[in-house]
Amino acid sequence: MDDQARSEELTRALTGLEEYVVLAATESAEGGLVVAVMATRVEAACPACGTFSDRVKSYRTCTVTDSPTHGRRCRLRVTKRAFRCVTPGCVRKSFTESTGQVACRARVTTRCGEQMGGAGRVRCTASVAAEFGVSWPTAWAAIAARAARCVAGRSKRTPVRLGIDETRLWWRQPWLTGLVDLDTGELIDVIEGRTGSAVGAWLDALDPDQRARIDVVVTDPHAGYRRAVADRLDATQVVDRFHVAMLANRAVTDVRRRRIREQADRRGRKIDPGWRARRDLLRRRDRLSERGWRRVVAAMEADNGHGHLDGELLWTWAATQHLTDLYDHAIDRAHATAC
Q1: Would you say residue 337 lies in a domain?
Q2: Helix, strand, or coil here: 334?
Q3: pTM assigned to the model
C-alpha cells in the first residue's frame, strides 16, 4: 500500500465517511473543525429515471453540520457535483449527487441527525440545538424524525389492561388523550382531543380480537371516555385512584370555603383556622405533622362553632380519609362494599 492510499485510509477511518475522501481539514474561527470532503465515486444515478451519469455539469460547495469530533464541533465542507442526465427526454435535465450521510439539501449529516434525535429523548430541543450548534428548527426536525421512526417501529400488541387519560404538553396546545399499557407502563398511542368520539374512533380501528383482549380499562371520571368504552368493549371499567382522591379533596375544599362564607359572610382569610389548614386538610392523616394536626383540629372546632369536633368539615374530611383507606386495604369491590 503506497503512502497516498494509506493516508486516505487513515483519514477515512478517523472521519468515518466511507463514501468520501478528505481534501483538507482546518480550524474555524469559532474553534471548531472544518473538514473539506468530496465523494469518491465518479458517477451518480438520476433520481427521475435511475440512469447513471458521469457527465459533470458543475461543482457546488455546501456546508453541513457533522457530529462533534474529539470534543469539538465539526462542519463538513462538501464539494458536490451536478451531473447531466444522459437519458433523452428525461424530466430531470441535471441533478446534484447525494450520499447516505449527506442527502440532497441536507443541513446536517445523517449520523448527526441520529445523535440529535437520541439526545432529544431526555433533553429539551433548545439544549440539543446549543450543543450541536444548529438552529432550533433544525434540531427539532431531527428529533421529530427520530420520534416518528420510533412510533412507526413500536409493537402493535394490544394491552390486557388499558389506561386512558387526558394530557397536554403545553398550555397553548390542544388537549390530547394518552393510552397506556398498565402492565408495562408503555405509552401505546396519543390521539388528538379528549372526547369520547376520539377514544371511540381509536377503539373502532382495532380488530375484534384486539378489542376482546382488553379486559380492564382505567380512566378518569370523564363521562365521554366511559361511554366510548362501554359501547365498544366488554371490559371492567375502573376510575383511577388519582382522580378519585382529587375529587374527594375538592369536596373538602368546597365544604371548607362554604362554611367560612356562611359563618363570616366573606372569603377565607389568615385569621380563619379553616384557611390556615387548607393544605393540611388535603393530606393523609398519617402524613400530618404535629403542627398540621393542630391546624386541622382548630379548623374543625371553628367549623362547629361551639369548640367541638362535630361539623360538616369533620365528616367530609373523615369520608375522604376512609376512601383512601379503602384503596389501601380493600382486595376487591365486594370487600370495599363490606368495609
Answers
A1: no
A2: helix
A3: 0.57
